[in-house]
User: Which sequence fits this backbone?
């Protein structure tokens, strides 16, 4: 450094007296530069004891960060649906820790993804729904990839990580936001009860789907030579609508063989006005476009058209296509020889209803909207086929990665590191999963119960031990007042004003 400074100042042109006067300044510059460099390189080395009294250091582990859009618990290892086929996600779960009771911070794309990438709840950011610009919040808060980049990691991402395929400037070394998607022949597009359009593609277009192109780009980044650790992210868009995947994936799920979810006719009788309105709404997240009765709801329209299994077929096919892309990523990583030094995190931004509680789409505070796949594989630390049933949140991903890398935790981060659960699945975690949708509406999910408090004071309480389908709201039972009160303690005390945006 001193030599570089001397060269920059062309010190050989100065006389000796000038040199001696400048020497203290140059020594000071050299000292300060060394301090900065040491701060960037020297950080705590997380050391974890594993079997046979051996320790592993995860400080410089790479990260493969995989997001899947609109994927509910219809994953083989989660058992969400008997027809679901996800061999590659299952394969990843068998490598590490599957969190079977993981939940989103918000049941729509925008607010969920902003929460994941910043580690902050909607009640802190004011991003409660779609249509509210999340860029200002993301830009003024540190994000996951930004922390890695600032600590010398190579960072690259493609696909949907933040809503609308936004990427924060300065937080990535390489980015390819969005690839064009393959287009179905208009003659082969058909409707599901007037609510959705299905877009099966010709099989020869499989490599031209948006997700296939995204994953190919990410694979290229994985397989290039690396002289430093990396954080590489892939945002897979399906099973988000439009259900635009090759016909061969539809063929794997014959419509007549698809099992319809269990429902009861009077499921919404014990639900308040806000929950009812969300259940009946037609178009996604549009408060003013809701049915005036159950008979005019999206679910009723789909049932009358005889399209319930058709819609499920399209969703299952889209999941299988997404799973295929996950498999491509895992296979590509294995070819690099870096698998044993790479943390893999797979998550979905929120769940999706397909008729449960008389609702289609996301946008509720019930289990189908909030429960998501979350898998964390840390070579040498997580045991194969590990499972934890503890309630956790997607905002826990950020602090988990910070701890594994030995990075300082930003003061604002609200999640709780999952590292204790990675080594002990039954660790006594206190914090439940908190989910928010529209300002003032909150669900609290612990290991057994779901408590919902709406902005107008309406309440719901479900006991998952005895009522896994959330058919019976027991919030008014006096014997459960203490349980309800304990869960209510986790409701945020303050709700940030909502950011400006349209009604979507």
Assistant:
């Amino acid at each position: 450094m001193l030599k570089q400074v001397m060269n920059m100042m062309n010190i050989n042109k100065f006389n000796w007296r000038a040199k001696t006067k400048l020497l203290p300044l140059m020594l000071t510059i050299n000292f300060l530069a060394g301090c900065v460099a040491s701060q960037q390189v020297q950080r705590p080395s997380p050391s974890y004891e594993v079997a046979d009294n051996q320790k592993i250091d995860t400080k410089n582990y790479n990260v493969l960060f995989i997001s899947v859009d609109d994927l509910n618990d219809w994953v083989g290892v989660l058992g969400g649906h008997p027809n679901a086929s996800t061999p590659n996600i299952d394969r990843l779960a068998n490598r590490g820790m599957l969190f079977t009771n993981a939940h989103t911070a918000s049941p729509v794309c925008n607010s969920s993804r902003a929460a994941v990438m910043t580690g902050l709840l909607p009640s802190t950011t004011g991003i409660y729904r779609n249509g509210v610009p999340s860029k200002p919040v993301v830009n003024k808060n540190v994000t996951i990839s930004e922390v890695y980049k600032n600590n010398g990691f190579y960072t690259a991402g493609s696909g949907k990580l933040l809503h609308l395929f936004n990427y924060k400037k300065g937080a990535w070394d390489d980015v390819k936001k969005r690839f064009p998607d393959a287009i179905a022949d208009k003659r082969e597009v058909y409707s599901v009860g007037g609510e959705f359009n299905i877009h099966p593609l010709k099989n020869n277009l499989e490599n031209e789907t948006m997700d296939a192109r995204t994953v190919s780009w990410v694979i290229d980044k994985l397989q290039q030579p690396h002289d430093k650790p990396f954080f590489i992210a892939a945002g897979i868009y399906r099973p988000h609508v439009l259900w635009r995947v090759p016909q061969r994936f539809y063929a794997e799920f014959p419509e007549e063989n698809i099992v319809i979810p269990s429902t009861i006719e009077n499921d919404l009788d014990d639900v308040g006005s806000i929950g009812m309105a969300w259940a009946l709404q037609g178009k996604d997240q549009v408060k003013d476009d809701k049915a005036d009765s159950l008979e005019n709801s999206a679910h009723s329209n789909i049932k009358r058209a005889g399209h319930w299994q058709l819609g499920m077929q399209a969703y299952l096919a889209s999941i299988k296509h997404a799973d295929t892309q996950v498999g491509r990523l895992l296979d590509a990583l294995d070819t690099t020889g870096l698998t044993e030094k790479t943390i893999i995190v797979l998550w979905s931004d929120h769940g999706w209803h397909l008729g449960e509680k008389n609702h289609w789409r996301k946008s509720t505070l019930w289990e189908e909207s909030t429960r998501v796949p979350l898998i964390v594989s840390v070579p040498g630390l997580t045991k194969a086929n590990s499972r934890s049933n503890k309630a956790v949140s997607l905002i826990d991903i950020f602090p988990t990665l910070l701890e594994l890398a030995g990075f300082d935790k930003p003061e604002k981060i609200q999640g709780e590191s999952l590292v204790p659960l990675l080594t002990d699945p039954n660790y006594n975690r206190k914090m439940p999963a908190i989910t928010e949708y529209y300002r003032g509406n909150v669900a609290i999910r612990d290991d057994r119960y779901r408590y919902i408090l709406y902005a107008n004071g309406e309440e719901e309480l479900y006991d998952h031990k005895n009522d896994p389908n959330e058919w019976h709201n027991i919030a008014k039972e006096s014997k459960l007042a203490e349980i309800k009160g304990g869960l209510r303690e986790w409701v945020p005390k303050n709700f940030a004003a909502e950011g400006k945006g349209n009604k979507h």
In short: The domain at 53-429 is CATH 3.40.720.10 (Alkaline Phosphatase, subunit A). The chain has 16 helices and 21 strands. Residues 452 and 460 are 5 Å apart (CA to CA). Confidence is low (pLDDT under 50) at residues 1-41, 283-288.
